[in-house]
Design goal:
With about 80 residues, this protein is mainly alpha-helical. It has a domain of about 45 residues. It has three helices and no strands. The model has no long low-confidence stretch (mean pLDDT about 60). GO terms for molecular function: kinase activity.
């Protein structure tokens, strides 16, 4: 009984093996196709974009403000 379970498990594990070229093909198809479909609507000329920061807002993120934000960021301390 135990051996049956072990062999069926082994078979299940080894069945869905694809060649690396097939995997690569599927992966590249996914990334290229979906990325293009996602990016295509946003690929407009730069003048169609609204300005990134509202006028009069640019002085808000001063150097000290950015430094304070960086100091709050927890992941840089180990470097």
């Amino acid at each position: 009984k135990k051996d049956d379970a072990a062999t069926s498990l082994h078979q299940e594990h080894t069945l869905p093996i694809m060649g690396p070229e097939r995997l690569q093909e599927v992966g590249s198809y996914l990334t290229l196709e979906t990325m293009e479909k996602m990016i295509r609507p946003f690929a407009m000329p730069a003048e169609d974009f609204p300005p990134a920061t509202p006028i009069g807002f640019s002085g808000y993120f001063t150097k000290s403000m950015l430094e304070r934000l960086v100091n709050l960021w927890p992941f840089h301390k180990n470097h």
